[in-house]
User: Which sequence fits this backbone?
């Protein structure tokens, strides 16, 4: 929160950590120059308004004594000075700083007696009064890598976790996106607005966001080590009747730990994971079980 008019800080009615309500008086500036300008404008308006009313009364009683044009000019002068007075009154009101919304004072930057310049120009080194935050709603910023940006759209579910909140998951959804990638990082900025009634999440915290971009239940998946890729495409070796058979496959999602197989394999096929080097189609093999790693849902930390 910055000052609209310059002045000396007369009083502050709130401090860091205070919960404030919208419209609550937070600080008062002492700006005698602003008050004097208002008094001058008010006096000018009063005399112009009296002059107009007198001329109007004279014209109504005897139109030959004064021209209608002079009455109109006096009326216009009175209206102009009234607008100036109202403008100066608005500036005088800016010496009182009110809370713009319900929130919490999270920072205080000045003390009574300090001179506060007006924050009207970008070149001015303005001193703020407070930082006021509404902690009941937080906005989470997530940078989505380019390879996942096409699916990170409004409404995509998100699960948030924080090291400071072990065992707790906070669920939400993407509220908005920038729709354009940052050229320097090749990431898409997405925002997640979340209710925060218990103030579990604090401004400035780091959280881990998992975006559920796609869900393929009961998907057939393989370890990446089982795939054989060459100029003919992607394939795997399966064991049938004690011999190796090369089978072309079509893959889908890949989370780095598992690769989805869309076409080419059946659920109960035996797939060669280790020992593919030098293996040829039709070669006799002796298969033994492979200890698969513990499975987990596909996820990417953002």
Assistant:
């Amino acid at each position: 929160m910055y000052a609209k008019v310059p002045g000396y800080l007369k009083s502050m009615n709130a401090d860091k950590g205070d919960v404030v309500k919208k419209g609550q008086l937070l600080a008062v500036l002492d700006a005698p120059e602003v008050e004097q300008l208002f008094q001058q404008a008010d006096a000018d308006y009063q005399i112009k308004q009296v002059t107009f009313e007198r001329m109007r009364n004279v014209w109504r009683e005897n139109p030959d004594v004064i021209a209608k044009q002079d009455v109109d000019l006096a009326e216009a002068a009175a209206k102009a000075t009234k607008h100036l007075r109202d403008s100066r009154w608005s500036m005088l009101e800016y010496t009182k700083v009110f809370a713009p919304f319900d929130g919490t004072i999270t920072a205080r930057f000045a003390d009574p007696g300090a001179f506060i310049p007006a924050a009207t120009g970008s070149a001015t080194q303005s001193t703020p009064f407070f930082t006021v935050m509404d902690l009941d709603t937080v906005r989470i910023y997530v940078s989505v890598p380019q390879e996942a940006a096409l699916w990170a759209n409004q409404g995509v579910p998100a699960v948030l976790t924080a090291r400071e909140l072990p065992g707790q998951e906070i669920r939400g959804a993407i509220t908005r996106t920038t729709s354009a990638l940052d050229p320097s990082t090749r990431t898409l900025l997405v925002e997640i607005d979340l209710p925060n009634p218990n103030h579990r999440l604090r401004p400035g915290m780091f959280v881990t966001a998992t975006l559920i971009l796609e869900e393929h239940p009961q998907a057939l998946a393989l370890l990446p080590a089982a795939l054989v890729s060459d100029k003919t495409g992607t394939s795997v070796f399966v064991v049938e009747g004690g011999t190796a058979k090369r089978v072309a496959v079509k893959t889908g999602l890949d989370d780095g730990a598992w690769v989805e197989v869309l076409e080419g394999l059946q659920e109960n096929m035996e797939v060669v994971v280790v020992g593919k080097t030098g293996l040829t189609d039709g070669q006799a093999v002796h298969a033994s079980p492979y200890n698969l790693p513990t499975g987990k849902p596909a996820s990417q930390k953002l």
